[in-house]
């Protein structure tokens, strides 16, 4: 039971990626560090009260998303559910549920300045090697992890952004190539989730990304 709770986010991510992007479940399990049998045991488990409540909440979220032509982000969605349906929900729960089913706010395209650097020194100087943050969305770190799967040793790459404020994952992308585009895609997902955030963004790749102030 403890292992199921510990890996619940991983199982949900596998389920979402398999349903939305048709990725092979066996390979997703390898990437997630869980066994194929454990995932299917979780998939066919007897659902808890919390999971049943989340399913009802997901139906409400989908309905509101369609009614409002996809313009509601997770913050606006949370406020609307609180005010109009008198439900006690927090931003992180709504964000997590919307991310699982791939709902994103339809908004105007923003411009970003991508500042390349030849070494890692520039990025390290910006943070002054202070990898602590007083609040969320103050400092984001990005890293790419390589995974090998299949008999032929195929490679996949998991790019993730980590918030130093609350030690949570802001966004992640799985791709077949370890390149700048993989990191940009991960960054853009994070900005869509937190459109008003202006964090210091640090990457071991030796470049920083700053949101252009409108």
UniProtKB/TrEMBL annotation:
GO biological process: DNA integration
Function: Involved in the transposition of the insertion sequence.
Residue ranges constituting the Integrase catalytic domain according to the UniProt record: 132-214
A Pfam family that the UniProt record links to this protein: rve
Taxonomic path: Bacteria, Bacillati, Bacillota, Clostridia, Eubacteriales
SUPFAM superfamilies: Ribonuclease H-like
Protein name as annotated: IS3 family transposase
Transmembrane stretches, start-end: none
């Amino acid at each position: 039971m403890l292992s199921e709770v510990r890996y619940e986010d991983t199982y949900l991510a596998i389920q979402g990626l398999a349903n939305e992007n048709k990725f092979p479940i066996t390979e997703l399990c390898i990437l997630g560090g869980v066994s194929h049998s454990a995932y299917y045991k979780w998939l066919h488990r007897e659902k808890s009260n919390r999971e049943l409540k989340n399913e009802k909440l997901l139906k409400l979220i989908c309905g509101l998303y369609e009614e409002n032509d996809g313009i509601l982000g997770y913050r606006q969605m949370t406020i609307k559910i609180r005010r109009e349906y008198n439900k006690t929900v927090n931003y992180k729960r709504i964000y997590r549920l919307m991310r699982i089913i791939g709902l994103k706010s339809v908004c105007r395209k923003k411009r970003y300045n991508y500042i390349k650097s030849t070494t890692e020194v520039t990025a390290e100087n910006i943070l002054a090697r202070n990898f602590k943050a007083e609040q969320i969305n103050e400092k984001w770190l990005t890293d790419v992890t390589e995974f090998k799967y299949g008999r032929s040793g195929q490679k996949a790459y998991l790019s993730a952004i980590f918030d130093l404020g609350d030690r949570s994952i802001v966004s992640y992308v799985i791709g077949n190539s370890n390149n700048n585009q993989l990191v940009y895609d991960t960054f853009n997902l994070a900005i869509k989730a937190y459109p008003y955030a202006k964090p210091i963004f640090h990457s071991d790749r030796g470049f920083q990304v700053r949101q252009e102030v409108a």
